[in-house]
Design brief:
By secondary structure, the protein is α/β, with parallel strands linked by helices. It folds into two domains: 163 residues, D-Maltodextrin-Binding Protein, domain 2 (3-Layer(aba) Sandwich), CATH 3.40.190.150; 99 residues, D-Maltodextrin-Binding Protein, domain 2 (3-Layer(aba) Sandwich), CATH 3.40.190.10. Helix content is 46%, strand content 19%. About 9% of the residues have low confidence.
Amino acid sequence: MTSPHQAFLGRRRTWASALLASLCMGPLSGLAFAQDAAWPTPGKPVRIVVPFPAGSGSDGLARTIARKLNEDTGGNFVVDNKPGAGTLIGAQDVARAANDGHTLLYTIVVTHTQNPHLYSKLPYDPFKDFTPITQVARSATVLVVNKESPFNSVRDMVSFARSNPGKLNFASYSQGSTSHLNAEMLMLRSNTQMVHVPYKGTPDATRALMAGDVQFYFDGTATAVEGAKAGRFKLLAVAADKRLSVLPDLPTMTEAGVEGIDIVGWQGFFAPGNMSPALAKKISDAMGRALKSPEVSQLIINQGNEVSGAGPEEFARIVKRDHERWGAVIKRLNLKLD
């Protein structure tokens, strides 16, 4: 049986242990809180890595958001374009950065949901090396052809491709991207053979289409809408589960005669892995305010996309879901890029 004196000594040891723990952890916890509260650190730029060339739709949206973040936070947000290798170069850069909120990745669905299935070995882990921050927009790709093309519908193009195996070339804005995978799905679903010519971003793919080096490609909505308005492209169909509000007369691929090309894409911000939830929320809240500004939200809509604003937890669930969905598609295609 424990005596009152022994009980007192036990409680005193517990109090002492708690006090020692608080003294040891207090400064560290306070430092972490101070770092989170101070974001962005005055005088320290926030680098937004965009794994696409300047002039692409994603680049333009990232720059517009950066300007709004500068206004909102008083910080210095700068876009750093690191295109190439299907977003691997830019993603690897951010994966190796400090998770203090001063290096962010603005990318599309390919980086975290497609590349892991396309490459046997990646220079990053799509889940451990990144912290989802904000899903900016839900997007789609649009099947485009040169304005001088003889094709006025998907059926026209598929009919020609079936009669002329290997005679049509298609571009993509990067190897393994949604632009590439949707064309692979088109060949699978339509029983056709066409030749893939990958490019290093949308501007190069667009130039190839205009020059006649390729006959079609699945373009991002922003540049597809812009090209159609300028009279450079003909739009044949949208690879989505429903028509786009900005292009209400454009049929989906299913309506155009080819089913199964309808997984919606997205664009969003990621930070390096293991970021504190408090800092992730602080950054996401700032992103959310930027998305509510008329300048940003209208740009997203004009590009043919839908404003999202999903925060860290919801965005993480979206990434996991789409990782599984694209994994099933890529397995069906039996496609590897290494």
